[in-house]
Structure formats: structure tokens, C-alpha cells
Design a protein that fits this description.
4 copies of one chain form a homotetramer. By secondary structure, the first copy, chain A, is of the alpha/beta class. The first copy, chain A, has a domain at 2-121 and 195-263: Rossmann fold (3-Layer(aba) Sandwich), CATH 3.40.50.1820. Helix content of chain A is 41%, strand content 18%. The first copy, chain A, has 10 helices and 8 strands. Chain A has helices at 68-80, 93-104, 123-137, 141-152, 155-160, 162-175, 178-189, 220-229, 245-248, 250-262; strands spanning 2-6, 9-16, 20-25, 45-50, 86-91, 109-115, 207-212, 233-238. In chain A, strands 1-2-4-3-5-6-7-8 form an 8-stranded mixed sheet, with helices on both faces. In chain A, helix 8 links the parallel strand 7 and strand 8 (233-238). Strand 8 of chain B pairs antiparallel with strand 8 (233-238) of chain C.
Chain lengths: 271, 271, 271, 271
């Protein structure tokens, strides 16, 4: 763990290994810790894990920001760290930020990896956002858990990992602070107005889109939209997985990322 | 609206038309009112709408009952009303009760119609149950709405009916009472232990199973299980619909029910 | 069986029952005989089964016609039979003719029922058309059967009805004549240029669209297109069925048709 | 191109690069040439392309063999080439051979990659086999093309690559010899009796299963069966692709293989 100061904010980050930089943008409840089990799987890259504002050990944000704040902060972060160009992987909320970054600073990216994300916060997501914000505002881990997890994990994962989920619930209950919950609420509100479906047509980066067949919060049709809009995209679906595909199917997830990165800029001559 | 007294309880019911009786068992939040728009669509039957204990205008239940209480009360209701045999249609919670009824009193049924239901309350449903119960316990309609509706309606329906949903939210906020919420909590708890997947193999009634491709709370695989277990079943899927298929796609829903009932007991000689 | 003479052609038809007329347009290999097992299922209508040119016992066609010939011949047929208005049900090839009829003579239709059909003969269908035409040209029933049936029935149906399919193969081998095969070739060529995807936007008839999840020749996306284009459509999917949904799932098929017709022109007031 | 002699047969093979050996077992119509465009994508491995008996430039087989002949010949081939252990990738027919090899010589394998394949030749496949064999027996490339390609490529690929498919048809017409067609017929017959669904439960190798959502000849449910039976499997689906996923979606295909191989034997500690 290390910190970098950017204006009023401190961002928490971790760096592992050597190679082309590969940065991981967290889903809304995740932190740099979420990626540690994957370090050994991505040996060929310089891995950058980072907590965005209001995530993990980074600074808390101010009321009313949008996801754009992360975009500019990431750019400053790269400058400060002397990182010229990265592969950018974003999950859910992190994928939304990654697309926004690709629109503003395409020259900083080798490629884009978008997992279980959307280009548009739809009406249903807004209601989910409201209940998640409400649950966070109770500062009660059990309520927060029940309000969020059924959207995050598939019914199959629930059936097969009941004990693990119960342990995780207990962990959450004991570890999350009022400050964390307040940050979560600001973060989720920052995505309310997302609508870049038309804008992303201009993205020309090699892009991997990872979907999951049981994802109910960013269901496959939303990723099909991204796939249609971004020209140079590949689209693969992890079977029997919900929204948190990196947790439900870590082997498949890591395989897709590694395999894509291996040849992201090569052309094959078949057709 | 009429009432019938059974032991300590009063059940609210409505009856329309003439013909073989067709009874409608409500989903957990529904009442006899939910079916009124359909009266004109089911002209060939004697329609019986009924509020189960803790639904609509029927009596409130006592703490700790299971869905079995409804089964016996329905049987008493039929006796009292001189109804010998019915077609039984159940949605979600009502479908669970209908299967339980079919297991105990098969001789009272001509046929079974099961819409968006399950034979098993899985681990994920239990967490949803918890957050729904919690939200009900706040006696706050807005919270209750946000906690429940994203599971009930599909993202497509949300996009296309934003205003209608907002109106409905306002209606809910103004009309639901603490007594209603308490009843809702008891009702949802009464389904916690449901597991009749093996038992329903003995059902021999002609059965129609209606699923919806975007149903996230009782997804298609749960209805496929019912389809496999019940011998004489037909299985049809309404496209672009979530859990509340009767509201999202009323024409398709009514067509399936009418068409099934038309020939439920006839055999065709093709294969 | 009866015949009516229209210019140079004789059309074979059968009529059953009383009520609003419901006409069945065959899939390419079907005939009026295919519908007989369904007579008892559609008691409320005056059923009209008809063989189009080059089908069943109707006249053979001349080289080079398109599906338009059927459209005008149906209109003449209705005039001659004093039929003013019908419900028109078409399967596959018959569904294509039905849509074309709806475009030219909408005033003759109460409603439209389209099963496992397409508004566009795509590149893949053209190759299938070629091999079917080739197989027909061998006048060898076994070859014709193997070339066509794997597209018509789902792998599930094949597994469960191996003996029935073998019997059917033997039937085909013994009954089809060179004249029939020649007619089949003309008929299939008559659909080569079908492309009415844009045109059908103008159809305002109440329309039922029946799809099947395992249909590989007119897969669901083609029926989704029809559903999007025709305003007043309902769309339902029969589970575990291939292209020949009327044979694979006759109960579901008949239920959908009866249920739709029951209330095709009524409006429900839910949303 | 090189040849190795094993008893009465000569096998054609090609070898590229350095690293752990990765052998590619062709689909039934493929040859070592099919893999050449991929060489540059699999830089980290010693690539072994091989034509099985009756494929490409290898010897022709004798009447009546089954896929077992390939299994033993591969084992002899490895011995002769001083190859101790390989990653084995098989597509369709090649995947069937790969599973059979894994059952008999598991100690020779690091891992298994199965693309668009099946553990069981079902009734529908047998009819397709018959028409393919018939079409091959005409020695007419155009007929063979029309009989086979609509099963191999998805309707989407057909729409988007009409010209490429036409060119390929012309190539086929001009290049395939009667001897090739005879070999094709023997090869396809060698898979008729395949049924190892129960047997593969004993496979303990790390296994990647690649399916495609529009594959109509080995549809996803057949790969779900393999996924359930083999313990240590990962299952990923390529979107918008038919049976020939390596051709339709070469980037996704190569990414899955590379990514899987990168960490096939590592364990991650999340759950």
C-alpha cells in the first residue's frame, strides 16, 4: 500500500510486477485488496491497483461529484507516477469510469477491458441505487448486505457458497464504518447520470467485453450495446455467473484478461 | 367484494361470470383488485379472486404460519362455497400455494396454472426475503418500493413505463398501512422453508407453466425444474418480461391461460 | 377434401366447424392433412385448411413464380367462397405468405398468427434452400429426409422420438412422387427473394408471433425483428422446441392460437 | 510439413516455436493448414499441428475404423517424436478424439481444451452425418458445400461474410478430390457410435470448454454436459458465433486458449 497526493486528495494504490502497466478500476464496493488474489495470475504485467475517491483507503470525496472526477484524477495519477500508457480494466462502476477515460484520454491507453458494466444508468438501476443508498445510510452491515448481495452474486453462486457468503456478511458487518457508507452513497450517486452510449462509438481501442449470463444488474443486452458501439471489440460470456464474475469465476475471468492482452494489437488473417 | 368466515378468519373474495370455476391465487403483494382488469378476458369461466390471509382485505394472520395454512383454508373455502372442483392459477407466492394444494387435494382440481413461481426457496431468495421484510418494517412506502420493484419488473418495463411506475410508487406510499406491512412480513416468512421439488413429481394434473425470460427472482431454470418434475405439463415463455408477467404482458398472459384451459384435458394424436 | 378452380389452377381445401373463419397456411412440406389432428382443438372457428399451389393436392405451379402468386390466389379463393374476413395463421413458408397477404389485403383479415417464420430469406437460408432443392431433385426420399429433417426438428425431439421419425422417413420414401418433388423445388425457389422487413412496419393487425427456442432455421432473432416491426404484436416462445413447433409441442401451439383468438381485439386497462 | 511413419500409416504434421507442446486436433474437414494463421498468436508454446488419418495430407484409413484409431496413433506419434506431455486442444471431431485420449492416456496431458464438441453422437447428428456422407459421395463440391456449411457457420457470419463464403465454396469445388471425399466419409462414420458422457467423469485434467451461442450442431447444452461431468473445468461462451468459432471469432478463440494455458495449473484463493 502506498499513497499519492493529488490536490486535496490522497489516492491509495498498490503496484506489483514488471511489464506493460495494467490498471484495475474497482467495482463500487471493491478496493485494492479485492485484486490481491489475482497477482499471481497476471505475471507479465506491471499491475496497478487503485482505490478511487470514496473507495478503500483513498480520500473521501465531496458531495455531488460525478464519475468525471475519477477520470481526471487518474490522468494526474499517471503523470505523477510517470506512467505513459496502460491497459485499463474496469469492472461495473470501474468499467464506466474506464469508458469515460477512454473518451477523454485515448492516447494514454493500449487497450480497454470492460467487465459487467454499462454505458447507461437505466431507470431500474436508479431504483436499485436508491435502495442501496438507503441501506448504506442505515450504517447497518446486515441490511446493507441483504440489499446489495442478491444483485451482485448469481443464484447459483448463492446455492454453492452459502457459508462463504455468510462469513463475508459477518466481515462486512464488523468492518464497514459510517465514513465508508457515506462514501459509498456519494460514489453510487456519481453514476446516476451516466449516458455515454452514443459517445463510445468513437472509441477505437482494442476492447475486451466480459459479460455473465446470470448478471441481473448489468444484463447481457447492455454489454451487447457496448459491443455494437465499439468497433474493435471482442465479446465473451462467462457461463453460470452473476455480476461479480471476477469472484464467481476467477479462472475464467483471469484467462480472458490474459488471453486478450497477449495479442490485443495483433491481426490475424483468416477472413 | 364479499367475505366468508372460516374459523377465526375472514377471507375476502370476488366472483364473476359463469362456467367451470377458475381461482386466482395472488402473488405476495397482490389482492383481488389486481385481477379486475382481466375479468373481461376470461368470459368462459366462473372467476374466483381471493385474498389469502395477510393479503388485501382478508384477515391478518398469526405469527409463524407457513404456506400450509392457505392450503387448508382454501379447501374449507371451497366446501363452504359448494365449489367441488376448480382450475387453480397461482402466481409466484400463489403458485407455491397452488402446488401445495395440488399435492394435498388433487381431487379438487381440474388443472393447474403456474406463473413465475418456484418449488424451492433458494438461498438468494432468502436474502431478498430479508431485505423485503426489513423494508416493510420501516413502514415507509418509498423504501419498500425501491426494495421490491426492481425484482418485480424487468429493466425493459422500467424503461418503457417510468411514469406508470412513479405513479404506482405514489399510490403505494399513500395507501399501505402498518398492518399491511406486518402482514406482508408474515406472508413472506411463510415461504422461507418451501422445498417441494421432489414432492411435485406425484402431480398428475394437466399443468401450464408460464415463465418470463427476464424474471430475475424466479428465473427460467426454476420453472424448467417444475416442468421436468410434473409429467403432464406444458411450458411457455413470455418474451421481454420480468417476474410480474401478468402486468408486463397481460395479453400474452391471458392468451396462455385461455388457450390452455380451452383444451386442457383433450389429447391430440400427432406423435 | 374439396376443390375450387381459379383460372388455370385447382386448389384443394377442407372446411370444418362454424364460427369466424380461421385459415391455416402450410409450411412448405405440409398439406391440409397436417392440420387434421388439430380440428378438435379449434372448435370455436370455421377452420379452412388449404393447399397452396405445389402443395398437397392442389395444382402444380409453373416455373419461376414467387410467393406473390399465393397472395392473389388466396384473395380469389376468399371471393369465390364468399369469405369476407379471416384470421390468418401461417407457419414458416405459410407465415411469409400471410405477411404478404396482410400487406396487400389487410381489410380481409381480423388478425395474423405467425409461427416460426421470417420476413427475410437470409444468406444461410439460401444455401439450405439449395441443398433442399438438390435433395428433392434426386427423387430419393431417404436423401430428402436427411437433408431436411435436421433443420425441421430439434435435437431434443430427435432424441425422444427416434422411432416416430424413422416411421415418418419410411412414409416419405414411399409416398412422395417426382411431381411432388418438382413442386417442392418450385415452391422453395419462390421464397428466395423474400425481403419485407421494412414493409411490415405498416401492418396494424393484432398479431401473434410464436417462436421456438431451438429453431435453427428461423431462429428467435428473426421473430424478434417481426415483433419490433409490427406494432400490435404479442410474442411468445415455446420452450424445448425446434422449427416444427406445431408438431413438437402441439398443446402449447394450440393453446397460444386459441388464447390469442379469444381476445385478439379486446383491450385491457392495466398500464 | 513433415511426415512420420507409424505402422502402415504416414501422419502429416507441422511444428512451430518453442515451449510446452500444444497440439491441435482438427475438426473433421480441417487440416494443419487451418491453424497456420494462428501461429503468431501462440508464441509461448511448441505448436504441433497434425492431420489425423483421412485428414489433410495424412494417409487414408481403412473402412470401418472408429475414433479409437486416432487415440493410439497419437500416442505412438508422441513416443516417436519424444514428446512426453502436451496440452491437447480439439475442435468438434478433434475434441471427441481429445476426450478419448484423455481417458486412455491422461499421464500424457497437461491440460485439455475442448471447443464446440460433444461427448455423444445424438440422433440428430446421425442424420446430419448421413446427409454429409451422401453429399461427399457425389464428389460434387457445390453440393458438399451446401450440405455442410449451413451447419458450420452461424447465420450472422453468413450475412456478414457472403463473399468470403462464396470464395471458399469455389476453392472447395476446385480442390477436393474423390479420395478426400472418401476419407471424409470414413472419418464421419468413425464418430457414429461416440458415447463417453459417463466415462468422462473420471477426467481430472484442468479443462477449458469453449462453446458458441449460435452453434446448431453441437449446441451449448452438450457442452454444459461436459462441463458438469469434468470436475476441473472452466466454461466460456463466445457470443454471436456458430460451430466454427475458431474461424468466426479467431481473436476470442485465441484469447481463451492463451489465457487458460497461462495459469491452467495455478490455484487462486478467493473462495
Amino acid at each position: 500500500m502506498a499513497k499519492v497526493t493529488l490536490n486535496d486528495y490522497e489516492l491509495n494504490y498498490e503496484i506489483y510486477g514488471e511489464g506493460e502497466p495494467l490498471i484495475f478500476l474497482n467495482g463500487i464496493m471493491m478496493s485494492t485488496l479485492s485484486w490481491r488474489p489475482f497477482v499471481d495470475f497476471f505475471k507479465d504485467y506491471k499491475l496497478i491497483f487503485i482505490d478511487l475517491i470514496d473507495q478503500g483507503s483513498s480520500s473521501k470525496g465531496k458531495e455531488g461529484y460525478t464519475q468525471d472526477i475519477h477520470v481526471d484524477m487518474l490522468e494526474e495519477f499517471f503523470n505523477k507516477m510517470n506512467v505513459n500508457k496502460v491497459h485499463m480494466l474496469g469492472i461495473s462502476y470501474g468499467g464506466e469510469v474506464a469508458m469515460k477515460f477512454a473518451l477523454k484520454y485515448p492516447e494514454k491507453l493500449y487497450s480497454l477491458i470492460l467487465s459487467n458494466t454499462t454505458s447507461y444508468t437505466n431507470e431500474l438501476m436508479k431504483d436499485i441505487e436508491d435502495i442501496w443508498a438507503y441501506a448504506a445510510g442505515t450504517y447497518n452491515g446486515r441490511i446493507f448486505f441483504k440489499a446489495t448481495m442478491p444483485y451482485i452474486y448469481s443464484y447459483k453462486f448463492y446455492e454453492e457458497n452459502a457459508k462463504w457468503l455468510k462469513d463475508r456478511e459477518n466481515l462486512l458487518v464488523n468492518s464497514l464504518t459510517p465514513e465508508w457508507y457515506d462514501g459509498f452513497i456519494r460514489a453510487i450517486r456519481s453514476a446516476s447520470t451516466l449516458n455515454i452510449t452514443e459517445a463510445i462509438e468513437t472509441i477505437e481501442l482494442p476492447t475486451l467485453i466480459i459479460g455473465a449470463d446470470l448478471d441481473v444488474i448489468t444484463p447481457l443486452p447492455y454489454q451487447e450495446v457496448i459491443n455494437k458501439k465499439i468497433k474493435d471489440s471482442r465479446f465473451v460470456v462467462i457461463k453460470d455467473s452473476g455480476h461479480a464474475s471476477m469472484y464467481e469465476k476467477p479462472y475464467e475471468f483471469a484467462a480472458l484478461v490474459n488471453g486478450f492482452l497477449k495479442n490485443y494489437d495483433k491481426k490475424i488473417n483468416i477472413i
